[in-house]
Design a protein that fits this description.
The structure is a single chain. The protein has 780 residues and is mainly beta. 9% of the residues lie in helices and 32% in strands. β33 and β34 form a beta hairpin. It starts with a helix and ends in a 6-residue tail after the last helix.
Amino acid sequence: MITNQVLLLLMLSILWPSIALPFAPGNIGNLFGMPESDGKILQRSKRGWMWNQFFLLEEYTGNDHQYVGKLHSNMDKGDGNVKYVLTGDGAGTLFLIDEKSGDIHATKRLDREEKAMYTLNAKVLDRNTNAELEPDTEFNIKIHDINDNAPKFAKEIYFASVPEMSEVGTSVVTVTATDADDQTYGNSAKLVYSILQGQPYFSVDSENGTIKTALPGMDREVKENYQVVIQAKDMAGQMGGLSGTTTVSITLSDVNDSPPRFANHSFRVTAVESTVIGAAIGRIKADDPDVGRNAEMEYTIVGGHDIFNIITDQITQEGVIIIKKPLDYETKRDYEFRVEVKNTYLDARFIHGLQFKDYATVKVTVEDVDEPPIFTRNPYIIEVHEDTAAGSFVGVVSARDPDADNNISCRYSIDRHTDLERLFNIDSVNGTITTLKALDRETSKWHNISVVATEINNPRQTTRVPVFIKVLDVNDNAPEFAMSYDTFVCENVKAGQLIQTISAVDTDEPLVGHKFVFSISPTNPNFTIDDREDNTANILTRRGGFSRREMSMYLLPVVISDNDYPIQSSTSTLIVRVCACDSRGNMQSCNPEVLPFSDGLTTGALVAILLCVVILLMIVVLFAALRRQRKKEPLIISKEDVRDNVVSYNDEGGGEEDTQAFDIGTLRNPEVMDANKLRRDIIPEMLFPFRRTSPIKDNTDVRDFINGRLQENDSDPTAPPYDSLATYAYEGTGSLAESLSSLESAATEGDQEYDYLSNWGPQFKKLAEMYIGKSPGRET
């Protein structure tokens, strides 16, 4: 092994003619182990020489300090008076110098990748005085690289993709490694790439690490993922070089190279005839090994179809068969059509020689269900004139049961929730709609009812249909004023002046529009009318000189007629007030003036006034006298009035202490009432014998009555087929108290005398006045 000192001497001997570095001015000997040769070979007068750079290999593994080089000055006579001092990068830590000999050693391993060069300064001092014998000299220690770093990739695993069926040599991805060794020194950082795993499908460029396809016709449907291992080796791939590896996961991306195909070219679907329009009845599916957009398919019916349609489910890529028109088992039960499937996206590179579509046959069988009735129209619109009499014909609705052979298969009814006023009725057999009441267009122009058709064999099957009934107009309303008019005429008005423009309205709606005619009495001395023939008229004055003293208000009847058939007319009254106006005709006041009295009244006027006062007083006096003498009318005026009468008595009884009027016990328990119990306070005249009917035991009469009515309803052929509630009202055969009505009296009123009622006490005073006053002998 050649030491640094020998290398240094060899290099100095070669470069001596051209390279000589002064150490310091003055008489200085050579440095770094250069022999003095008696001071003649490497010594110049007042000039010292030294080499300014050392070379040191990195990664020294010896146990001792690594020798770097040697410093030597011509001033050093070998007597120990010279001291060498080292300063700069790593001096004293990484690099140590022997003060006596000038030998430089490295204290530990040096790594070029951490620092490639160190700069230091060398000093030569007098050991005794520490005086500098020569000026400082700077030199470098450069670390020489060795191949101690393996190549490294940026990622442990790479992901890449390449389309399937790619040509050989198609670039997939480029992976590169880095080497920390010196790029400019030797081959330590020169890399070569190779493939360790992934052949024969892929290859790699040895210089730049680009991975390419190496096998033609790679099919994703056969194999989709590949694992490729790439190696990078330094020392240009020579033996002993260091290497690093990485893994590249390569996926073949899909292209549309596979057409869709039906696994089964015949499908059978079943649908019930009650399936609603737009509902799905079945699904079919074709297979496409491609994925994503390349597997998207479109289904169509070849030539189209009137009843069915097919759409594509974008999620499942299935063909969904739906209904376009209602199915009818009784009309047609089987259908057959062809379905075509094709890709929606085609790749031009693969369509040559392949047909990217397929066909299948679909057979649909319709199943029968119990369907509800079907109306011939939906909805019905019927017109009827207003004022039509009750029971008049309106229209007919018709429905049929599609599952029945005969036409009479359903019953009709009106949903009364849509006809709350019960204006219409319908025949349950033939569907004829009639009116129950007269219709008025001015009240309602339209009537919207719902008719329900119910199957006879299955009442749960019902169908509703709206029936819109339009009420046509009949001229049954007379025109009238369009508004309330506030009309006035000025006192200073002239004849022929316009005081009001009037118009009319009519709730009827004739086809040709309204045409009103206005007129007033031609003999009216105050006003006249001018019909403008545009459904308006002008009211004009016939004269002038109106006066509020004579008349403050005029009532003007105006006759308004229409032109429809039959002609309707009405008379509306226009109130015309007489008002005071200014010269421009502006109203100032309409209050009637207070007429001033003259200075004296005539004798005739005074007599008339007094006569009126006297007559008024006589009327008041006469009225008061008649009121005092007037006798109260009895409640029962005529004996022919045999109706039961309810009489209210306001007289109070004697209370609980009054035990003479009647027996309290009898009222509490009629069963123990004596047959001839009489009043105890008076001796009444017996008019009628007392009768008491024994009560009917166990209510046998009520039971017999109800059983009879129940048998009548059970045998009634006109009774409804469903459960109904029948109400039976039975008054009974009588009560213990008997009837209070005079209809069952034993004698007539003409045979009775009621004077004894006056002796019954104050409690019966009201009753005595009624009957005594009605006695024939007391009538006046």
